[in-house]
Specification:
Largest sheet: 6 strands, mixed
Shape: globular
Number of helices: 7
Distance between the termini: 54 Å
């Protein structure tokens, strides 16, 4: 099973607090997801701590279920109950959370994860009684569990959507040296089928053999590794999408995320790291294109729920106050 890690962003950002609050209000009122056909069953493995913490556990479970609902709304044309074993830790490290899902090992092929297979088959279980996927959460960091996230907290729901998407198949099996058996067919993810170097040459052949001449691309920086699926390219203005390939290889992150150092990608859900504060919880056209390329051909953005006129009046008044605060802060 390939476990993908999500890291806390180490860079500093200067963000206007009034704008953060306005974004929170607008998001909470305008982007409520439609009911998804996917359901999620989470099996919490750490009694008395983490998601079962006597003080915070219930709120953490609620936040994870709400993150799953936000993501599931994009998959309303599919029907499946997805099972996850959920563990937790409390470790002073940059990793915020990690997740994964196994697959069949068939050398020379590009495989769906068990979660992905279950979704695309509308509920057929490929791995029997075992959980379809796993999630581990690091509660060392302060988390914003709701729809108000301060500048000292990490947006739990965004991270939850991110981790679930790894289990959905947004992940690579490529390692620091490409594969583990040079020159021989190996098992790859569907995602790997679309990875190329900067010139558009495949990293893994159609026969499932990693091209060892492409190893330098794995640490080549922005633009060295691209996702070149047709839907993603169309959403990206006709160009391949930059995939995370930092100069120092990062196990669990390299080649399985969008590139953080590309400005247009750095704040998207599937970037490899996240800074504190409320973040977008909607999938971009590029991310939707990638998901279509790896097999989710029926995925679509959920319809927005209309906002009542009385709420618009309240929101207008609040934004007016925020504008005054912002002008005062600039003096």
């Amino acid at each position: 099973m390939n476990i993908l890690a999500f890291k806390k962003h180490s860079r500093s950002f200067s963000v206007s607090k009034p704008l953060i609050v306005a974004g929170c209000l607008a998001f909470g009122l305008m982007a409520q997801p439609a009911q998804a056909a996917l359901t999620f069953s989470f099996n919490y493995l750490n009694p008395g701590q983490g998601f079962d913490d006597p003080t915070f556990g219930a709120a953490r479970k609620t936040a994870l279920n709400e993150a799953a609902g936000l993501l599931g709304a994009y998959f309303s044309n599919y029907t499946a109950n997805l099972t996850f074993d959920v563990s937790s830790s409390n470790v002073n490290e940059s990793r915020l959370a990690s997740a994964g899902s196994g697959s069949f090992e068939i050398p020379g092929t590009f495989q769906q994860t068990f979660v992905q297979s279950k979704i695309l088959s509308n509920g057929v279980d490929a791995n029997g009684a075992d959980a379809d996927g796993t999630i581990d959460w690091n509660f060392f960091w302060p988390w914003g569990l709701g729809d108000t996230v301060t500048n000292t907290e990490t947006d739990f729901k965004k991270v939850g959507m991110h981790e679930l998407l790894h289990a959905f198949g947004f992940s690579s099996n490529i390692g620091i040296n490409g594969g583990t058996n040079p020159g021989q067919p190996e098992t790859w993810s569907n995602f790997d089928n679309f990875l190329t170097d900067a010139s558009g040459n495949r990293l893994v052949s159609t026969g499932g053999v990693f091209d060892t001449s492409k190893i330098p691309a794995l640490t080549g920086g922005s633009g060295a590794v691209l996702f070149n699926g047709a839907n993603a390219v169309a959403a990206n203005g006709g160009a391949g999408v930059n995939i995370y390939a930092p100069s120092t290889y990062s196990p669990g992150s390299s080649t399985s995320h969008l590139d953080d150092d590309t400005a247009a990608l750095s704040q998207l859900i599937m970037a490899s790291s996240v800074s504190d504060g409320l973040k977008p919880r909607t999938l971009s056209a590029i991310e939707l294109g990638i998901l279509k390329d790896i097999g989710y051909t029926q995925i679509e953005a959920p319809a927005e729920v209309p906002v009542p006129a009385t709420v618009w009046l309240m929101l207008t008044g609040l934004l007016g106050l925020l504008g005054l605060n912002r002008r005062k802060a600039a003096l």
